[in-house]
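[Discussion] Sanity-checking designs against the backbone

I'm trying to build intuition for which residues belong where. Below is a C-alpha cell string of 395 positions. I'd appreciate it if someone posts a full sequence so I can compare it with mine line by line.
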C-alpha cells in the first residue's frame, strides 16, 4: 500500500508540470506535444511487474550472479563494436559483408535482452546490500529497468543560466526531429537543448540506460533510486516543487542533484569493489585527450566566461563564444552537439561537475567530510529545505 501511495505521489507531482501556465507554456506545449513521453502510459505497462519484483526484495533466490552481469556488459561492448563496423561497411558499400554483420548483431541483441532481467535483479540486490551495510533505509524498494530512457528537453532563459522547464520526450527521435524541436522552442526567445539521459528517476521503476559501462550503470541505478528516496524527505520534496514549477528554486535543485550524485558514487564504489573490480579495467567516461588538455578546467573556464558575458547583458556574444568553444572541444575529441545556456543549466545542477560554478558542491563535500558515516551525511542533507540550512550546518 505504501508503494502504491508513493507511485501516485510521483504521478501527481510530475504530471502537474504539464499544465499550461500562460502563453509561453501554451506555445511550448504545442511544439512538444507530438513528441512527448507519457509517464502515465509507461507506468500502466510496467507497474505490476515492479510491484511483483519489490515483493521479492527480501528473497535469497536470485537466479543469477556477477557472472551474468559480466556477460551482459561484454555483450553491450560487442554490440557497440559491431555497430561501428556496420557503419564503416555501409559506407564502403560491401553488401555481402553487411548482411553477415547485421545477422551477428541481431543475435547479440537477442542475447542482451535474454540477460537483461536477471542483471537488473542482481545489480538491484547488490545495491540494496550496500545500502543496508550503510544503515540507509530502502524505501521505496529499489527497482530499475535497463532500457533507453526518455529524452529530456531543457529550457533556459537566454540572459541567464537557469532551468525553467524540463519535459520528457520519446526515446526514438531522429536528429532532424531533435534539431527541429530545438529551433522551434528557441523561436520563443529561450535557449533549449534535447538531451539523451543516462537515467530517469521520475518513473517507477526508474530508467537506467542499457548501453553504458558497468560502473556507470551501478552508479546511475543508485542515483535514480536516491531521487525517489529523497522525494519523501524535505529536500527531495522541495525539489519536486521546483520540477513541477510550483515553487522554483535552482539552489534546491542543485543541492538535491549533488547529494544524490555524491551518495550514489559512494554506494557504487562499494558494489563495484566487492563484486567487479578484479574483472574490469579503467573505465573512462571522457574520451582520450592530449596530456596538455584538461576538460574539467576548460569547462569551468567556459562557464565563468559565459556568466561574465551574460552579467554584462551581452547575450549574443555569449552564444557566439559558446559555439566557438564547442568547436574547440570537438577538435579535442569531445563530441558535444550543442553548447548553450540550456546545456549549462542542466549540467550545472550537479555542483560536483566541471560545468558548475556553484559553491554548493564544495559545501556539500565539506559537510560530508564532517560526518562520520554516509547515512549521517544523507540524513542531514535530506532534512534541508534551503541553502541556508546547508550553510548553517557548516557554521
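Best answer:
Here's mine. Compare freely.
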Amino acid at each position: 500500500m505504501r508503494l502504491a501511495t508513493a507511485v501516485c505521489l510521483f504521478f501527481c507531482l510530475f504530471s502537474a508540470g504539464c499544465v499550461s501556465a500562460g502563453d509561453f507554456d501554451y506555445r511550448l506545449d504545442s511544439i512538444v506535444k507530438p513528441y512527448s513521453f507519457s509517464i502515465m502510459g509507461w507506468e500502466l505497462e510496467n507497474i505490476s511487474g515492479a510491484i511483483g519484483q519489490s515483493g521479492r526484495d527480501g528473497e535469497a533466490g536470485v537466479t543469477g550472479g556477477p557472472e551474468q552481469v559480466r556477460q551482459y556488459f561484454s555483450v553491450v561492448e560487442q554490440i557497440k563494436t559491431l555497430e561501428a563496423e556496420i557503419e564503416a561497411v555501409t559506407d564502403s558499400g560491401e553488401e555481402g559483408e553487411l548482411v553477415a554483420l547485421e545477422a551477428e548483431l541481431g543475435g547479440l541483441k537477442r542475447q542482451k535482452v535474454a540477460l537483461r532481467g536477471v542483471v537488473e535483479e542482481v545489480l538491484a540486490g547488490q545495491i540494496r546490500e550496500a545500502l543496508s551495510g550503510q544503515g540507509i533505509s530502502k524505501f521505496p524498494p529499489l527497482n530499475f529497468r535497463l532500457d533507453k530512457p526518455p529524452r529530456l528537453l531543457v529550457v533556459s532563459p537566454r540572459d541567464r543560466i537557469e532551468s525553467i522547464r524540463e519535459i520528457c520526450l520519446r526515446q526514438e527521435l531522429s536528429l532532424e526531429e531533435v534539431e527541429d524541436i530545438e529551433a522551434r522552442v528557441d523561436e520563443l526567445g529561450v535557449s533549449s537543448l534535447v538531451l539523451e539521459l543516462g537515467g530517469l528517476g521520475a518513473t517507477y521503476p526508474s530508467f537506467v540506460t542499457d548501453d553504458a559501462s558497468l560502473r556507470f550503470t551501478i552508479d546511475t541505478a543508485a542515483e535514480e533510486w536516491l531521487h525517489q528516496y529523497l522525494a519523501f524527505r524535505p529536500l527531495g520534496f522541495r525539489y519536486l516543487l521546483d520540477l513541477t514549477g510550483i515553487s522554483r528554486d535552482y539552489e534546491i535543485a542543485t543541492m538535491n542533484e549533488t547529494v544524490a550524485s555524491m551518495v550514489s558514487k559512494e554506494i557504487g564504489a562499494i558494489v563495484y569493489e566487492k563484486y567487479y573490480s578484479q574483472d574490469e579495467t579503467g573505465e573512462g567516461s571522457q574520451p582520450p585527450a592530449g596530456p596538455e588538455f584538461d576538460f574539467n578546467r576548460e569547462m569551468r573556464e567556459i562557464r565563468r566566461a559565459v556568466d561574465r558575458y551574460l552579467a554584462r547583458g551581452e547575450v549574443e556574444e555569449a552564444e557566439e563564444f559558446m559555439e566557438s568553444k564547442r568547436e574547440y572541444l570537438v577538435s579535442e575529441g569531445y563530441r558535444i552537439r550543442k553548447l548553450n545556456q540550456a546545456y549549462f543549466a542542466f549540467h550545472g545542477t550537479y555542483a560536483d561537475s566541471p560545468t558548475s560554478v556553484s559553491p554548493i558542491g564544495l559545501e556539500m563535500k565539506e559537510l560530508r567530510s564532517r560526518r562520520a558515516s554516509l547515512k549521517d551525511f544523507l540524513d542531514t542533507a535530506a532534512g534541508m529545505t534551503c541553502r541556508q540550512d546547508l550553510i548553517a550546518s557548516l557554521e
